[in-house]
Amino acid sequence: MSILNKLLLSLILFSGIISLKLQLVDEDYIVVQIGYPPKEYKLIVDPVGPFTYLFKENDSQSKVAGDKTEPYSFSNVFGNFTGEWKNDFFYLTTDRMMNFRMDYLEITKKESKLNCDGVLGLGYSFEQSYGNIYEVLEKMYNVFPSKKMMSYDKKKMQITLGEFPERSN
Fold this sequence. Notes:
The protein has 169 residues and is mostly beta strands. It contains 2 helices and 11 strands. 11% of the residues lie in helices and 40% in strands. A hairpin with a 3-residue loop joins strand 1 (20-25) and strand 2 (29-34).
């Protein structure tokens, strides 16, 4: 298949995207791939956390420093954390068709009992919009006409970002 045909097929696929569907594992986690070459991470979903942070080191070739250079410290229900802002490719969907660059916090110091590779923040905060998934998706308005909304389908174990899914019986 020629490069032009692949590009056309990708454009057609992306033009139909109106939401981002995330498949949950064990009700609380999502398995994502990050970086190049992509490596798998098991992240707990935080529906109110305004950004994503990783505990497991990301040694990706595509990782770059974030725009914010000073270390960032915060506390939440999961514990106390300090880290450095980084940026890399994220593959969030199960089909691994769509990737985008996103800022995240690479944790260098933690006081927590969480046993996972990190936390995927799906909340929104006007005070902390840096590293927010909705800000990233909003910049992709030609591909992904997103709105800052999220829904959870417990039966399908699926989180949808960007639109409310059709109602099922």
